[in-house]
Write a structure and sequence with these properties.
Blueprint (H helix, E strand, L loop, with lengths): L2 E5 L2 E4 L4 E8 L8 E6 L6 E6 L6 E3 L7 E6 L4 E6 L8 E7 L19 E2 L3 E6 L1
Parallel strand pairs: 2-11
Antiparallel strand pairs: 1-3, 3-8, 4-5, 4-9, 5-6, 7-8, 9-10, 9-11
Length: about 130
C-alpha cells in the first residue's frame, strides 16, 4: 500500500520561505517521478513541480519558476519543495504525489497531461500580505 505524508506547511508573510517535505512508502521510490500540486479555495488543482526518478529532469509551473526548487533524496524516500519569495497567491493546500508524468516538451507544469496515481493528504501553506 502506497503511503504519502507531507509536512512543512505553515503560515508565512509575503517574501518569506518554507520547505515542504514528503515521505513516500510502499513503492520503489527511485523508480517513480514524483511531484507537488496545489489547490486554492474555489480553484482547480494545479501542478506546481515534478522531478523524475533519477532527479535528472524537473518541470515547474510558470507561476513558481525561479522561486521554487524541487529536489529528492532517494536514500530517504523523500521529496522536497523549497519555496522562496512567497506571494499571497501561493496560498493553497499543497499535495505530494507519486507516479506523475514529468518531462516532454511542455515546460509549464501547471496543467500536466497525466494526473498522478498516488496522493498525499496535503499540507496547508498560507501567505499573508
Amino acid at each position: 500500500q502506497v503511503q504519502i505524508m507531507e509536512s512543512g506547511g505553515g503560515s508565512v508573510q509575503a517574501g518569506g520561505s518554507l520547505r515542504l517535505s514528503c515521505t513516500v512508502s510502499g513503492l520503489t521510490f527511485d523508480a517513480y517521478a514524483v511531484g507537488w500540486f496545489r489547490q486554492a479555495p474555489g480553484k482547480e488543482r494545479e501542478g506546481v513541480s515534478c522531478i523524475t526518478g533519477s532527479g535528472g529532469v524537473t518541470r515547474y509551473a510558470d507561476s513558481v519558476k525561479d522561486r521554487f526548487t524541487i529536489s529528492r533524496d532517494n536514500a530517504k524516500n523523500t521529496l522536497y519543495l523549497y519555496m522562496n519569495s512567497l506571494k499571497p497567491e501561493d496560498t493553497a493546500m499543497y499535495y505530494c504525489a507519486a507516479n506523475v508524468h514529468c518531462g516532454g516538451p511542455t515546460t509549464d507544469y501547471s496543467s500536466p497531461p497525466v494526473w498522478p496515481s498516488y496522493w498525499g493528504q496535503g499540507t496547508q501553506v498560507t501567505v499573508s500580505s
